Amino acid sequence: MDLIIRQLGLQDYQKTWQAMRDFTEKRADSTADEFWLVQHPSVYTQGLSGKAEHLLNPQTIPVVQTDRGGQVTYHGPGQLILYPLIDLKRKNLGIRALVSALENSTIALLKQYGLQAYARADAPGVYINEEKIASLGLRVRRGCSYHGLSLNVDLDLTPFDGINPCGQSGLSVTSLAKLGINIKADEPAPALIAALINTLDYDLDSVTSK
In the sheet that 123-128 helps form, which strands lie side by side, from edge to edge? Predict the structure, then answer.
């Protein structure tokens, strides 16, 4: 089945969320899967299991109640976000397997930069030295996934001080820039996409970029 990669640039969070829901509602059995690569202006997003007490001091940053799994996180410019819009039934792929694929692809990407990252069974995401560098939150509707992965590349980490990231009090957050890897947010995208395509066993000949 075909896979379409869309480079969307900087996009409003709520408009992108609505576009993902619309795509998922309208897709047919023959609709190609899509990976959306995007960045968002500063925003806190609160997942379905999010609790108000994890919003410590949002100040002027907007808070959006969204329909993904998980707790509260922050998105901002300098973060690489990948939304996998996948027909899980067609690929015979469970949600846990998709989470692991996203985590493992991110770990493989970070290894290319000489970084030893790992996943945690008790808290989805990717970590380096007990600090979180990538967050995960997914929604499955009609057997298809949306929402996805955010990787901290060169963003301002200060807004994470206004929340308990992913509902974990005292959790430290890091980025590639903080770890001495000075690149722009979109630079790791090709390697991340390549790792995910390989992990999820897409046919390279069926992949197109738009």
Answer: 118-120, 123-128, 131-141, 144-152, 79-85, 33-39, 3-10, 207-209
